[in-house]
Every structure is written in C-alpha cells, then in structure tokens.
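User: Just a sanity check before I run the rest of the batch. Below are the structure tokens for the first item. I only need the designed sequence back.
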C-alpha cells in the first residue's frame, strides 16, 4: 500500500511543479528564505464568507491555518512557512504534526519543513505573526469574524467561501489558488484530481449503492454520529459514485446523532464507513441487538478507517491526500460493496 501511495504522490508532485511552472526554494522564518513561485496574476480580490481580500502582489511568505490549505499551496509549487497542526488526536509524521503526504511534498519541492502551530488552544495568532506572512490561507477553517479581524491585522487572509469547516475540497483549491494568483492552475489541479478519481472508480460497483460516513465507538454504541452532506468526508463518498442517504442530506449539517433505538433511520445504507476500532467495531455492531438488524452490518459492509493513524486523516480529502489514499480507499470500499451483493 505504501508503495502505491508514494508513486501516486510522486506523480502529484510532478504535476504540481508542472502546473506552477516553477521551482520552490526552502523557506522558513529563521533563514528568511522565500518561495519563488510562478508569477501569478495580481492584484487579485477574493470574495469569501467573512469579506473581500485583496492581494496586491506575489506573496513570498505564505502561512496557512485550518485543514488542508497547505496542501493546495504545495500542490501549486509553493511551500508555506507555517501551518496549523493537522493531526489533532491522530498521529502525524515524525511527531511534527503534519501528515505524510504534506511532508513528502515539502521534500519533493526541496523546501524546509514548516513551523507547525499548535491548535490545542485555538488559533495561534502569535505563532502565525512570527512567521511574518504576506498571505494567510484559511479556505477550510473555523475562523470567526473576530478571528478574521485579528488575522487580517497580520496579513491579508483568505477565509472559507460559505461556512466554517464545511468547504468541499474543490472549493478549498479554488479559493486558495485565487488568493495565490494561480486560479487557472487551481482549475487544472481540480481537473487532474477528478480524472484520478474517475480512473480509480471506473470498475467499481458504487453506482446505485448508498454509503454514509459515521463516527462510531465499539466501546459505546448507544449513540453514533452521521456526518452531513456538507462535510467533506461524506461529500467525497458522493465523488466516488455513491448515493447518500436522506439522513445525510442536509448540506449545512456537520453531523447528526442517532440513538440505537433509531437504527432504522439508516436502514437504507449499503456501506457504513466510520472512524472506529477495525474488526472490533464490526464485531460490536453485529453483537448489538439494534445495530445488528441493519443489512450493512449483517453483510459485514463496514469500512473502518482506523483511529490515530494517517489513513484516518486522509479520508478528509485535500489536494494531496486524495492521490495518497485513493487507491487503497477505493479497494476497501469495493470489498464492502462486494459483501452487499
């Protein structure tokens, strides 16, 4: 699996450098280095949920907060000097706080590893300021209006287009690439990722099947949570060709709790995807008097993406995590669909 991911990421890195038409030199607050990205189209004005942001010229020092925004910049050949901790309760690479696909991209671009801000106590405004950014990308983030005001005092800031933490991966690429002056390259990147998804799912049996993304714990199944259609994990299942159940249909809902007594509300789900405990989750569901009545559980069509590993982070899709996880994720879902026949 790891070999296929490295090959995919190598191809993505090659594409990124080709799209940006540039090389990126190491950059860090300590060495004063800068990103020598392809000259974008400036000035640009980006409209987002918290206002309008004008970027007057090519930013040499880019900082990102939130989730996955650093991957957009990296995929376009720009190495951010500072990024938010991406891993939360999950394990990152080498304890740095970012995942494999991100570190691999820094290496592919020959760039120095970024300063990583702790998210334990919210946004690290002081840490962001210390990186001396000329642009802050937050297309997928939870910035409040007050946070945004503080951030814009540091540097021009690109926020999410609609709602906090509910930005689809295409829109993250679109809004962040616009801020970088590389909107056309961002469009090409989206098209490339869509082609990879189409190729990976060409022979799948996902059409006509319903899948949903949950948070479940084998230790306590009294209540589970289903992520809404607006959440990128659920939306990515639709990208892969699945239908979504009605209960996940509210675009503006992050998640909804379902008690075991209401298990029949998801009776139409053919494939259950969940953060969980591997085989232990399926065993617990099949032993439960209520969840065991679901056809997906009876069939064993339960895909557990683990907890505390890189793969569990990868299924929240980003510009770089998609090629890193796509082949393996589709294979797992294919296996689950086969059980539903």
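Assistant: Here's the designed sequence for the first item:
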């Amino acid at each position: 699996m790891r070999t296929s991911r490295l090959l995919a990421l190598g191809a993505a890195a090659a594409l990124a450098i080709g799209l940006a038409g540039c090389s990126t030199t190491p950059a860090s607050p300590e060495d004063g280095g800068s990103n020598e990205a392809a000259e974008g189209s400036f000035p640009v004005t980006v409209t987002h949920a918290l206002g309008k942001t004008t970027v007057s010229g090519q930013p040499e020092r880019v900082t990102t907060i939130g989730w996955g925004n650093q991957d957009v910049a990296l995929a376009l050949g720009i190495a951010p000097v500072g990024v938010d901790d991406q891993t939360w309760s999950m394990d990152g690479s080498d304890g740095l706080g970012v995942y494999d696909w991100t570190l691999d991209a820094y290496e592919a671009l020959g760039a120095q590893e970024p300063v990583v801000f702790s998210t334990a106590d919210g946004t690290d405004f002081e840490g962001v300021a210390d990186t001396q950014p000329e642009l802050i990308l937050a297309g997928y983030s939870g910035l409040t209006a007050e946070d945004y005001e503080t951030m814009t005092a540091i540097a021009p800031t690109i926020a999410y287009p609609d709602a906090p933490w509910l930005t689809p991966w295409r829109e993250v690429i679109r809004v962040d690439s616009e801020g970088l002056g590389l909107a056309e390259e961002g469009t090409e990147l989206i098209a490339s990722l869509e082609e990879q998804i189409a190729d990976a799912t060409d022979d799948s049996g996902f059409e006509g099947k319903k899948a949903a993304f949950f948070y479940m714990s084998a230790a306590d199944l009294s209540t589970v949570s289903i992520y809404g259609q607006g959440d990128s994990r659920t939306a990515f299942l639709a990208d892969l060709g699945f239908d979504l159940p009605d209960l996940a249909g509210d675009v503006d809902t992050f998640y909804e709790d379902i008690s075991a007594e209401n298990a029949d509300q998801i009776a139409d789900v053919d494939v259950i995807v969940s953060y969980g405990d591997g085989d232990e989750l399926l065993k617990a569901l099949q032993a439960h008097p209520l969840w065991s009545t679901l056809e997906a559980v009876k069939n064993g069509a339960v895909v557990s993406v683990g907890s505390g590993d890189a793969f569990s982070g990868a299924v929240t899709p980003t510009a770089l995590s998609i090629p890193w996880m796509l082949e393996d994720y589709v294979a797992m879902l294919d296996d689950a669909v086969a059980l539903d026949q």
